Amino acid sequence: MSSLPHSFFNRDVVQVAHDLVGCFIVRKMEEETVRYMITETEAYDGIDDKACHASKGRTKRTEVMFGPAGHLYVYLVYGMHWMMNIVTGEKDYPAAVLIRGVEEAIGPGRVTKKLKITGDFNSKKLGKEAGIWIESRKKDFDAKHIKKTPRIGIDYAGPIWCAKEYRFVLTEKS
Length: 174
Description:
The protein has helices spanning 6-9, 13-20, 108-115, 159-163; strands spanning 24-28, 33-45, 72-77, 81-87, 95-102, 105-106, 132-135, 146-149, 167-170. The chain is of the alpha+beta class. The longest helix has 8 residues, at 13-20. It is globular, with a radius of gyration of 15 Å.
């Protein structure tokens, strides 16, 4: 399988979130390289999206979201769980895809723990140099197994943004 090109991420965040399901996240660690199929994602779409961190403006924390596509936005929640997002779209438009699940790890905190992702990865460009990259889906992958749903845990964003079907889940392996 081949690494996804920069152009894959330089598109609409909702489309990227959908298209990442079934792709493989690859992590090169000291002694081994691991590869897991992405099974769940969520899209966060710019300053108008009340669930998106960038809705509060451009800050030191969110600066990476305003940068080029294909970089990681990694942050800590509850003082204990790292969340890993991939920046998408045009520079200066803050959008990112949260990786919520991979094979063998359901939940974004479990994903980062399994892949040994910490804040040190924040703003790194996906690629072999960073030790983390995304590879394409298998040729026989069938996208009909991807279900759209509202995002999880964003009640604070209000009813309009809570209802958006920006979460994508693999319902069965292709």
